[in-house]
Amino acid sequence: MPTVTLESQKNGTMNKAKVKSAKKRVAEEDNDQLPIFDKDVTEKAGEEGDEDLSDSEESVFSGLEDSGSDIDEEEEDDGDDEEEDEDDAALMLDENLKNNSGAETSAEPAEPKQQGKKTASKETRKMKKGKGGAIDGRGEKGLTTTFQGLATAQQGDEYEHDTSDEEDIRNTVGNVPMEWYQDYPHIGYNLDGKKIFKPIRSKDELDEFLDKMENPDYWRTVHDKTTASDIRLTDEQVDLVHRLQKGQFGDVNFNEYESSVDFFTNEVMIHPVTNRPQDKRSFIPSLIEKEKVSKLVHAIKMGWIKPRKPKERTPQYYDLWAKEDPNAILGRHKMHVPAPKMRLPGHEESYNPPPEYLLTEEERLAWEQQDAEDRKLPFLPQKHSCLRAVPAFSRFIHERFERCLDLYLCPRQRKMRVNVNPEDLIPKLPKPKDLQPFPTTMSLVYRGHTSLVRSISACPTGQWLVSGSDDFTVRFWEVNTGRCMKTLEVGGAVKSVAWNPNPAVCLVAVCFESTVLLLNPSLGDRLVVSSTDQLITSYEPPEEDKEQAVTWALSEGPEHNKGHRLTLTHPKAVKQVVWHGKGDYLSSVMPDNTSNLQVLIHQVSKRRTQNPFRKNKGLVQCVSFHPLRPYFFVATQRYVRIYNLIKQELTKKLMTNCKWISSMAIHPGGDNLICGSYDCRLAWFDLDLSTKPYKMLRHHKKALRGVAYHRNYPLFASGADDGSVIVCHGMVYNDLLQNPLIVPVKVLKGHQITQDLGVLDVTFHPTQPWVFSSGADTTIRLFT
């Protein structure tokens, strides 16, 4: 039974295909013969069209229209059947025409419901194709009788009912770049091969600008190059463009966060999908593989295939220094550099050079007066009428000989270029925050002097500060309040002041002109003040008076009441005074290049003066005592000499690499030294390391006037004529293998530059991380 039904179904489908092809042929013949249809026929076709449309709607909503695979396959099958059975269809033409409607009605119930749906959708598709005037696969027009009747009835403008989805076919140029027709009056060719001329575009730049200003829809108007027309975008199209620019989906109704549909169930099935038994070949060895293996065995037996040779284990040696040509003598030379090639001749060496290369008379005279090394060209460019008129080169042999000498005597060496990361060259320094405490802000300004303040010094307790100025006064200040406690007038501009570092003695040394005054300011502890006076008055002169370079005088009367205790009169002007750490010895500097009397050391308790140097070693700038050992530092213009006072000999001579030393300070540990110079440099010396500077700092823009170390904290400061004080962290380690750490931490500004002078002196507070600076603007400033 099933075979019979299958055969009947096959016959039914074949009959249907034949009926369809016959219908189409009849319709085409009618097209050629009858332009106008009867009314009954059109009504009938309209009814059929309505039925088909309802079926197609159903197919759209059931989702069958989108899945076009089944329909396309059926169409292809129908096409094949039609081609095979063309002859049968021609024979059965009359029968089908007679029984057309009867065959359709009888065939419909025999097919299942779904097949009816598919045929309905197929017919609607054919209708759509007919509407657009498309051509099907065989080249015949797929127009149904219905739409032919409608087209002949209307015969209006074919573009009147154009839809926006269909392509605008006013321009049939095709997908061709419009730039090709930029310089031509036409824009392409139509189907007849005639030119499609460009529409006359009367708009110029001015009209375009006016349109831009006046037309409110200008922003949504787009120029179409293919049709040369302006298209106004609708609101929906503008919204679509905005959505695409924002990276959103084109469809408004599209939900990108739709919940996923689980197509496969997560329940595990008990039974397999297929119950097919395993193949027999999975249990039997493969015959093809057996054949291949037998062929390989035969080839090995015959010797056609040889096994791999075992690797040789003998060591191999390479010539590391061999270059491109190992046989050449210079090929083995490591640093061989090939001879440089000669420069190719230019236009100026031509026998007929361009006129701009020929020298004028002035240039020729200048060339002849120049030295051979300074000349741009080793010859004079000359012009000749032809190549035959060119004489022999007079310097030919000389030039060849010089070239040979260059090749023979040139010291050639290949230098290996090192690629260094620039960041690796910068030292990795700690952050200033990690190096606190150090002075950061200006806390107090001590005002009172009327001229530039050359020197300042703090007392050992840190309570008082003394300053000397060019206004012939010495002022004593209270550090914490900034109040001036005492003012003493002296007989000249004060060059230097120094407070005795011994806390048991209250003495201040002041130098002006050729006098050094020892003052007792009577500030602080009364016991210390009285003991200082007793120390000075208890002096007993020796029996034999020796001649000294300095005359000592004890102050009495009104001068004693002012605070004067001792007056030392020098033969020349004194520039600097400095105390020894124990407070009994005092040194004064008298810079004079003509005599050996430049440095004197005074002992206050015995009122004795001695000249430590017999010879003059240069213009002395400043001196200093070693804080711990019996060493004496003398700085001349370019060198710092260190003398051992006990052995009375020169220990070291430091080369500062500066043009003119201005100031000097010694680290409390005694193994490091800093020198400031007038050429904007600060040199740090490590005395255990070398006689040359360990670090050269160039932080200031102008001449350095003063440098100082802190007694307790790892800090040092420098003041310069640019009005700034730079505080640096200078940590010295006990480990001799570790170098000192020098980090600039703060630039302190506040002093105004007057008469090209800025900061003249700096000194640290003895106990706190504070720094005092005196300037040419008559002020003293405290930075804390």
Automatic annotation (TrEMBL):
Principal place of residence: nucleus
InterPro entries (UniProt xref): BOP1/Erb1, BOP1_N_dom, WD40/YVTN_repeat-like_dom_sf, WD40_repeat_CS, WD40_repeat_dom_sf, WD40_rpt
Record key words, sorted: Nucleus, Repeat, Ribosome biogenesis, rRNA processing, WD repeat
BOP1 N-terminal domain span: 181-439
Comp. bias (Acidic residues): 48-58, 67-89
Single GO MF descriptor: ribonucleoprotein complex binding
WD repeat residues: 446-487
CDD domains found in the cross-reference section: WD40
Regions of compositional bias (Polar residues) in chain numbering: 1-14
Gene3D superfamilies reported for this sequence: YVTN repeat-like/Quinoprotein amine dehydrogenase (2.130.10.10)
Entry function: Component of the PeBoW complex, which is required for maturation of 28S and 5.8S ribosomal RNAs and formation of the 60S ribosome.
PANTHER family given in the database record: RIBOSOME BIOGENESIS PROTEIN BOP1 (PTHR17605:SF0), RIBOSOME BIOGENESIS PROTEIN BOP1 BLOCK OF PROLIFERATION 1 PROTEIN (PTHR17605)
Quaternary assembly: Component of the PeBoW complex, composed of BOP1, PES1 and WDR12. The complex is held together by BOP1, which interacts with PES1 via its N-terminal domain and with WDR12 via a high-affinity interaction between the seven-bladed beta-propeller domains of the 2 proteins. The NOP7 complex associates with the 66S pre-ribosome. The PeBoW complex associates with DDX27, BOP1 interacts directly with DDX27. Component of the PeBoW complex, composed of BOP1, PES1 and WDR12. Within the PeBoW complex BOP1 interacts directly with PES1 and WDR12. The PeBoW complex also associates with the 66S pre-ribosome.
Family named by the database record: Belongs to the WD repeat BOP1/ERB1 family.
Name assigned to this protein: Ribosome biogenesis protein BOP1
Protein source organism: Salvelinus namaycush
Taxon lineage: Eukaryota, Metazoa, Chordata, Craniata, Vertebrata
